[in-house]
Amino acid sequence: MRKILFVFALVFSAGGVVEAQVLDQANTTTVNSGWTVDNVNYTNLAQSFTADMNGPLNKIVVSVDPATVDGTFSLVIRDGNGYTGTVLATEYFTLTTTTPFGEFSIPITTSVNIVSGNQYTFIIDEFSGTGSAAFHGTNDTYTGGILYQTIFGSTELSFPSYDMWFKTFISGPDTYSTIDISSCMSYTSPSGNYTWTADGTYNDTIPNAGGGDSIMTINLTVINLTDQTAGAIDASLCYGDSTTIELGSTEAG
User: Fold this and answer.
1) pLDDT at position 250
2) Residue 7, exposed/middle/buried by CB under 10 A (0-12, 13-18, 19+)?
3) What is the Cα–Cα distance from 166 to 28, expressed in whole angstroms?
4) How far apart are CA 104 and CA 64, in angstroms?
5) 40: phi > 0 → left, psi -120 to 50 → alpha, else beta; which?
6) What is the four-CA torsion angle of 132, 105, 32, 115, rounded to 10 degrees?
7) In whole angstroms, what is the distance from residue 124 CA to residue 74 CA?
8) What distance in Å separates the CA atoms of residue 233 and residue 196, rounded to the nearest whole number?
9) How far apart are CA 35 and CA 48, in angstroms?
10) pLDDT at residue 15, as a whole number
11) 71 to 46, 100, 122, 127: CA distances (angstroms)
12) How does DSSP assign 153-203, residue by residue?
């Protein structure tokens, strides 16, 4: 039997630096009148772009006017320039008459790994059959792609003299760390998915601030406390005396 004090140590050794979302493309120099997307006449709006970086696409930011009619819209991402490439992801978002004017972020929840130098196109369409909203454009200030729109049920039209106002972001990289922990009786992992009751080396993963994974190696020592002992430094006490009491525990093994 060994006597130990209640001491719990946590040592964190970072193997990487958590990075924020990384801006890949931006066309935000000017804003002109909005391009309408609705369920009747202006059925969709699209913008192609050329990636500068490699990595998972995290979100696309556009600039909007409040919807003239509430509705659900879709964002389709295709490989290549235009409407004919392979569909890589489809996301949905809602715009209402109270949506604030200006930047609107659309998260990309499907894994889309963009490649530097390749072109991609995102297409915004009215999905619910009821909505109508305007998205801001610019006057051909972006050299990596062009704006497209389908009007009055026609085939897709290109507008080389215009572009959408937009930004694209990729997720930061995965990060790695090692954690040394001593814990009483058991330990619950940072993700909350596991509870461990024995010594060992374990793995756990949580999201990091950049949208990637924080991958942890946890070296765990579990202290099994079976009983507690308390003792006074001075065995005999009189009225008005003071003493120090040590609180400890025995560990099985």
Assistant:
1) 54
2) exposed
3) 6
4) 7
5) alpha
6) -120
7) 6
8) 37
9) 15
10) 43
11) 18, 15, 19, 8
12) T-S-EEETT-EE-EEEEEPPPPEEEEEEEEEES-EE-TTSS-EE-S-EEEE
What is the 8-class DSSP label of residue 100?
P
- Going 41 to 91 to 33 to 133, the CA torsion angle's sign is positive
Residue 248 in tokens? 């400890």
Q: Which two tokens stand for residue 6?
A: 């209640």
What would the two tokens of residue 190 be? 């940072």
Q: Kindly report the number of other CB atoms within 10 A of residue 159's CB atom.
A: 15
Q: Which of 48, 43, 10 is nearest to 177 (CA)?
A: 10
pLDDT in tens, the chain (253 residues): 333 333 333 333 344 444 458 899 999 987 777 899 998 888 899 999 999 999 899 999 999 987 788 999 999 999 999 999 999 999 999 999 999 989 999 999 999 999 999 999 999 999 988 899 999 999 878 999 999 999 877 778 999 999 999 999 998 777 889 999 999 999 999 999 999 999 999 999 998 776 677 889 999 999 987 655 556 565 555 656 666 666 555 555 5
Look-up: residue for tokens 């005999």?
Answer: 236
Length of the chain: 253
In terms of Cβ atoms closer than 10 Å to its own Cβ (0-12, 13-18, 19+), residue 99 is middle
Angle at Cα 105 formed by Cα 101 and Cα 111, nearest 5°? 165
In angstroms, the CA 177 to CA 129 distance is 48
Which residue, 88, 83, 81, 84, is CA-closest to 146?
81
Rounded-to-integer distance, Cα 68 and Cα 60, Å: 22
Q: Are 233 and 244 in contact (CB under 8 A)?
A: yes
